[in-house]
## 1
Amino acid sequence: MAQTPRPTHPLSIDEAWAFTAANAAATTFFFDFDGVLSPVTDDPDASQPAPAVPGVLERLAEVVQRVAIVSARPVSFLRSRFSSLERVDLYGLYGLEVWHEGEVVTEPAALPWVPAMADLAERAKAELPAPVLVEYKRLSVALHYRTAPQEALAVERWAHEQAESVGLRTQAGRMVVELKPPVDQDKGMVITEGVRDAGCAWYFGDDMSDIKAFDALRAREAVDPSFFGVAVAVANPETGAEVSSAADLTLESPEAVVQFLTAGLTRF
Ligand SMILES: [Mg+2]
């Protein structure tokens, strides 16, 4: 489908934008939220998108086929941070929730796990040391130890015990361990499905779960020689090196993501 040849990896940023602009009508931009569009905060409830983020996403959504946020947060949280965005699609809880035509659609296989997750959140609050922050997200429970890094091992051990006894899965992240229902859904699956009809896609991520999304872009390129995927890492002291090594390029911060997109938008 492409008039211009697909750029090769390692990437020339100039060629990447040129190809993207030439194929804008078949291009999707995917973004993780925490650490990519918003600086990570000690209290996960306090995080906000970097100031220019909503504006730049809306402008991007006007020139490409689709813009979507793919986060471990619930859709309700993402809606609270992006209430002004009309054209940006939202995937919450690694894709267990999707914001579609004005409502949240939940993966049916995950719904029976709601009571178990509520119960787990209560147990976590009672059993884990006080500085560990328990974030209850209806279909998952995140245990944050950013303000208590000395508890990392205790948190991981507790999470793995619970995963085994309740039958859940764990996802490690930046100073966090998350417990999720045993339902096959992750960011890689969201991207695999999301790029099925795309000619070009970009994914911006900063954490371990985002590497699965990068892999989905590579897999698509492997089966479709006309498809072009760009994996962008956002630097951080915890998982930065590993995510960066899996990406085509690395940006320094959420603010740098805004600047990068603002510069790219001049190409359309
Ligand atoms: Mg993140």
Note: The pocket of magnesium ion is lined by residues 32, 34-36, 206-207 (CB under 6 Å).
## 2
Amino acid sequence: MLLEGKKAVVTGGSRGLGRAFCVRFAQEGADVAFNFSSDEQGAAETAKAVEAHGRRAMAVKASVVDEKAMDALAARVEKEWGGADILVNNAGISQPLPIALMEGSDWDTVMDVNVKGAFLATRALARGMVRRKKGAILNIGSLAGERAIESPVHYAASKAAMRGFTEALCKEFSRHGIRVNCLAPGLLDEGVGKNLPDHRLAEYVKHVPLGRIGTVDEVAAFAAFLVSDRNAYMNGETVLMDGGL
Ligand SMILES: NC(=O)c1ccc[n+]([C@@H]2O[C@H](COP(=O)([O-])OP(=O)(O)OC[C@H]3O[C@@H](n4cnc5c(N)ncnc54)[C@H](OP(=O)(O)O)[C@@H]3O)[C@@H](O)[C@H]2O)c1
């Protein structure tokens, strides 16, 4: 197994891609802690799926923008599990708004969760990684931050920020034995893109050489490799996973 004996923290694990990470990491041998903002039923289902693979699950209701809560989550993982080997900054939101209708508060909400949330989770969890001189951090970007595709501007800007965040962190953390990479998926079968109108979906798929959208399971399977020790030399990279767009 790729992640035998590892302890992973995934932000936003109650559904969508975050849940797929939690379940796949458990299948590959990791204990998984995750947070979520409101979906308690979804979180319980994720925890159950992790435990079904014989691994420990820790589900914590805590927003990534809550500084104290993220520090408390990290402290709990340290105390109960001896710290995390892996962090996936997955929690993310979008709003289907054209710029003319976008309030300053809409911009702030998306940037806060998608960018500041990754900063707060990383700062909290990386302290232990630095002390132990090992760790793997995976930031979740998006095709929307990498290519000119139709996407709300605040979402695209927040996801483009993940590339810079990844590169700067990589420079800062490499001396501590921590690798940092970014995985940028195209449109997937679950999550933020699910409510796209049919005509927009058809238009998108027309341009995908593989002729279909991706699945969260495909992304999670690759992510398990990215954060594993078998991927020991990839660092500071943003990898697109979009069917060839
Ligand atoms: N799905 C796609 O097509 C796609 C493509 C490219 C990139 N991505 C990226 O993949 C990541 C996951 O997105 P998704 O599509 O799986 O979305 P999703 O189904 O809407 O799930 C979002 C997850 O993040 C959690 N979350 C939201 N705000 C949070 C906060 N403030 N604090 C903690 N957790 C929070 C949600 O918790 P609650 O359930 O409690 O709200 C949920 O678990 C995002 O970063 C997104 O940008 C997705």
Note: The mean pLDDT is 97.
